[in-house]
Each structure stands twice: as C-alpha cells, then as structure tokens.
Amino acid sequence: TSLFQAPVALFRFQIIFYEDRNFGGRSYECSSDCADLHSYFSRCNSMRVESGCWMVYERPNYMGYQYFLRRGEYPDYQRWMGYNDCIRSCRFIPHYQGSYRMRIYEREGFGGQMMEFMDDCPNVYDRFRYNDIHSCNVMEGYWLFYEQPNYRGRQYFMRPGEYRRFSDWGGMNPRIGSFRRITDFTRNIVFPFCRSSSTRTGTSGGATIRCNSIRVESGCWVLYERPNYMGYQYVLNRGEYPDYQRWMGFNDCIRSCRVFPHVTMGALHLFFSSGLPTQYSGSYRMRIYERSDFGGQMMEFTDDCESVHDRFRFRDIHSCNVMDGYWTFYEHPNYRGRQYFMRPGEYRKFSDWGASCATIGSFRRVMDF
User: Fold this and answer.
1) Angle at 21 between CA 40 and CA 188, to 5 degrees
2) Into which family does the record put it (predicted)?
3) pTM over the 0.90 mark
4) What is the pLDDT tens value at each position of the chain, 369 positions in all?
C-alpha cells in the first residue's frame, strides 16, 4: 500500500485562501472541489496556488463571478482581477492533454448560425460575425469564455457538455468577446538581457517583439504599450506576473517602462534588470476639475478615492493638477480598468495623461501597496 501512497502525496493539488492581504489572517488549504467555503473563512483578500489550475467563484455552488487561477501568488484580490473580497466556492481544473473542439451558436437551443472551433479566438465578432453566443456545445477539452475581446472581462469556465443557454455557463447575458483553451500558458520572455542606470528605461530596440511574463524583483513600476511612455499603462509592484492578464494587460506588447521613485532600489525583470530610483516619502495632494484647463468645479484630494462619482459627483475628469506625490488613475471604480500614471505636474486635458476619454472611476496614491 505504501508504494501507492507516496505518489498521491507528491502530486497533491492545493490552493490556500487567506482572509487578509499579503497572506495574512486566518487561512484555509483546499485540495479538491468545494461547493461552499463560507464556513472556513469570512472573506478572501489573498490566495496562493501551490499547484494545479483552479476556478474560484464569488458565490457558493460555483455561481457568481468566476476567476481562473494557476500556480502563483495573489497578494490581493486585484491580482486575480476580483471585484471584491468574496470567494465562496472553488473547482479544480483537471490536467488535460487531448484535443479541443467546441461549437458555438447564434441562438438558444443550438439554433441559428453555428461555428466550430479547435483553437483560441481573441475576437469572437471577427470570426463569428456575431457579438453574442446564446448556446454552446463543448465536445473536447476545457475552455474559458471572456466577456470582452482579447481575453478581458468576466470569465466563464466551460467543461465538456451542452450549454443550451448562456445562463447554463453562469452568464448574465450572451455577450462573449473572446475564448481560449485551458492549456499550459507558460511562455518565454523574448527581451534580451541588458542593464541601465537610468530611472526611465525606454524600449530595448528592434529585438523586442512581445512580452508575456514579468517578474518585479523590487520597487513599483509603470509599463506602457508603446514607446516613449504612450499607450495602455499598467502599474506593477513587487511580484510575479506569469502572463499579461496578471497585470490586466490587453495584449503582449510592452514597449517602455518607468520606475516609481518611492523605493531605494528597483529592479524589474522582463528577464533584464534596470533602475536606480530615488526615495519619495512626502505628502500627497491633487486637484481634479470638471472641465479642461482647470475650469468648472474643482475638488482637492489628499487620499485615495475608490469612486470618483460618489465623491466628486461627476463621472469625468477633464483636467488635473498633481501638486504632491505620485498617483494612479483608473478607468472604473474600485481601482479597475485602464490605468494612468500621474506624476506631479499640470494636466490641462485628459489626453495629457494618455487617455482617449475623460472618464475616471477611481484613483489612489502610489505608495507601498
């Protein structure tokens, strides 16, 4: 009997839930599916996946928001793109090495136009010519549906089986923007090794093609989709990001980066090191305005704001004056969506901080997260 017990222990799959951020507070270890976690912890602010791939759910019985997790550390719920600190059930995704095949349908009950897929689809509309999927038949393999294109937004775990309507996979509506197979997503970084003493590291030249994983050894950084600190922005602090979804990226393109001057030494590994920033330990002060060029209603902030509309009574910020400290703007409330790094200075219009519109849902100070 002992000959068979050792391999079982060796390949035990495990996920650990923690009540507080940074793996603090009461914890619970789980090694199998669990339909109701409520009796083990009241809230979940961090997780550690020791092995395997998992889906965790906001509500009991595998309902509510769903989040796909694989091996790694998640020191706060933003790291798994969570909307809150509520996790009530979890499901282990079994290892799979077979083929993948799925059919999606225009209407409920497998009606209307049908299309069969065997590979990932970053944009459903481009391939299917419809924005909605009303029913689906997963014949082989395990898949993830995403609410938005390029594997963004709410996630839905799709096991082999028939889904006659979108509510069968837990959707509130039939909108699916992309989907992909659950496989080993590990990718290699293609950045060359280089060193720099500059606090602003630009592109690494023509050799850089894509970036699919990042390790931040120390410090806080802002990464940009385009050269010269343009395009989508992503704020990263110390930790591992094994794929671009972990830093809430829209794609695998990183072309410039900038370190926050709030630590003594910074080192960002896109499998290269860089950065010798200075210390920031001062106060934080910022004024936001209803209109461009500092016009209309003004409000001054010295602390974080998780909902701009609740505090400011406007959904848009058209100009801003950052007087002290470093801040991050977020497109949606509760620090979600696109990010914009705000250094001290005057921003007379929203395009000055790299935005394509004036909508800001929340913002917070850049400090030790």
Assistant:
1) 105
2) Belongs to the beta/gamma-crystallin family.
3) no
4) 223 333 333 345 789 999 999 999 999 999 889 999 999 999 999 999 988 889 999 999 999 889 999 888 899 998 888 888 999 999 988 878 889 999 999 999 999 999 999 999 999 999 998 889 999 999 999 999 999 998 888 899 999 999 999 999 989 899 999 999 988 543 332 333 333 333 333 333 334 468 888 888 766 788 888 887 777 888 787 778 888 877 878 788 888 887 765 433 333 444 333 333 345 567 899 999 999 999 999 999 999 999 999 988 888 999 999 998 888 899 889 888 888 888 888 999 998 888 888 999 999 988 754
**Residue that the structure tokens 């497109």 belong to:** 331
Distance CA 358, CA 348 (A): 12
Q: CB of 256 within 8 A of CB of 228?
A: yes
| Residue 282, token pair as written in the block | 């001062």
What domains sit in the chain, N to C, each tagged with a CATH number?
14-93 (2.60.20.10), 101-181 (2.60.20.10), 214-260 (2.60.20.10), 285-365 (2.60.20.10)
